[in-house]
Specification:
heterodimer, A: 77 residues, mainly alpha, 3 helices, 64% helix, B: 268 residues, two-stranded antiparallel sheet, 11 helices
């Protein structure tokens, strides 16, 4: 299951994300040093599917201009 | 879907019909086509600040990539120090980190809303159209008769694939033009320079990303061949506005090298 989720994110990163950038007319838009999809992949592989997905979702919520915390690489715990 | 209609579809239809009524009142020819252009420009103006800040941030961040790699090399292993130095660099060069994925994604439902409205209204027959529009718009905007769906003789409700037998040149030029505008915008988006990411599994990913500049315009050309012309009119207005905005903020970007090559060829 973990592997399927990670492969899904890989497909998103390679195909969907590239096409979305073209559609929206913007280049890199993630404000974090490690992109949200990379972070979700890492947290799923380190913490398992459900906890990893939860951490990923809370990370996505931070990807907006009102979040003032750390933008560098975070520790997954 | 009710909430999507209330928040996105119904306001879009109201603005479209308001522009249409104003143009008809002024006796401007082909009011429907010009209303589609006007509506797209209104939406683009609303999205302007959002996209501008995104483009500015990504341009400045791209310029900082070599400095950031230096910092990472210099303080290898000391995460805290790298973080501090990165923030110092951002501050020094006046970079606000990009606004993030969420504000960018706000555009998606708007693009989808415009698509669904136009796809819906350009294809309805007269009686259906008047009933549908009048059920949604505010009372001063109500239509008393259906609009003329042609724009400089091209029926906005039909797709180029249907027009092949009657006006083949127009039917072929619409998807080609759509692809060209999309290509210009895609090319401008990514300025050449040092690669921003160095991930392990990224040979295929970066190859796909650079190929997407060619793949996406071809996909769009196919869509515009099979979708109603009214939608191509919307998409091309949307893209041309995007090209102008991109040019104002980032210049020619990745198109610069192509431009230089064409100039060099002309000189020969």
């Amino acid at each position: 299951m973990k592997q399927i989720a990670i492969s899904g994110i890989n497909i998103y990163q390679i195909i969907i994300s590239s096409l979305l950038k073209q559609l929206l007319g913007v280049g890199r838009s993630c404000r974090f040093e490690e992109t949200c999809s990379d972070f979700i992949k890492r947290s799923i592989s380190e913490q398992g599917l459900s906890r990893g997905a939860f951490l990923g979702l809370s990370r996505l919520v931070k990807c907006q201009p009102f979040y003032r915390g750390n933008l560098g690489k975070e520790v997954v715990d | 879907m009710e909430i999507f209609n209330i928040l996105i579809v119904n306001p879009i239809i109201n603005v479209l019909v308001a522009i249409y009524q104003a143009l008809s009142f002024l006796h401007i020819p082909y009011p429907l086509g010009f209303s589609i252009i006007g509506l797209t420009i209104v939406i683009r103006i609303i999205l302007y600040p959002l996209i501008s800040s995104q483009l500015k941030a990504s341009k400045k961040m791209q310029a900082l990539v070599p400095h950031l790699s230096n910092v990472k090399e210099k303080h290898k292993g000391d995460k805290k120090r790298i973080q501090e130095e990165t923030m110092r660099l951002y501050k020094e060069h006046g970079v606000n980190p990009a606004a993030g994925c969420l504000p960018t994604l706000i555009q998606l439902p708007v693009i989808w809303g415009l698509y669904s409205v136009l796809n819906n209204v350009v294809q309805k027959n007269s009686a259906e159209l008047v009933r549908y529009i009048n059920g949604i718009v505010l009372s001063p905007l109500k239509l008393d008769k259906a609009w003329d769906p042609s724009f400089f003789g091209i029926p906005l409700g039909q797709s180029p694939s249907h027009l092949m037998s009657s006006i083949a040149i127009v039917a072929i030029s619409i998807p080609i033009l759509t692809a060209v505008f999309q290509f210009v915008q895609s090319k401008m988006m990514f300025s050449p320079g040092p690669k921003t990411q160095t991930k392990k599994n990224d040979d295929f990913a970066s190859a796909f990303q650079s190929q997407a500049t060619y793949i996406f315009p071809i996909m769009i050309a196919f869509f515009s061949f099979s979708f109603p012309v009214g939608l191509s009119l919307y998409w091309n207005t949307f893209t041309i506005f995007g090209i102008i905005q991109q040019y104002k903020i980032g210049g020619l970007g990745g198109l610069e090298s192509l431009w230089q090559k064409t100039k060099a060829l002309q000189r020969k």
